[in-house]
User: Fold this.
Amino acid sequence: MRKSRYTEEQITNAIKASECGVKVKAICEELKISEATFYSWKKKYSGLFSEEGRRIKELEERLHSMERELQILSSDKEMLQSVLKNFFTTNDKRQAVNFLQNTYDIGTRRSCRLLDISRSVYHYPYNLENH
Assistant:
């Protein structure tokens, strides 16, 4: 999200000026913005005080950074699962599921999902004689 070159106070002052009777065209010429920009500001910030607008913007930035972090973590999980799929045997994955359950006190469903192994494969009897 691109940072605006106008502060919350400038935006709210422009909206207040229009509410006090100043023509929108004059406000737009003064700030060197289009009328469409002004009306989008009005839609977004109308009725908000400067502090509330700042708080909303701060929350939007936090949400955006959390979305980016979630995307990175999802990508990391996908990469690690592909490593598990291609370089570890089913028995290794079963042992890893047991390790996660014992170490982090999580359930079978979650640990199997993290290691990309189905629960039915995890519970399937494993014979050491055949392998």
In short: The chain has two domains: 1-74, 88-131.
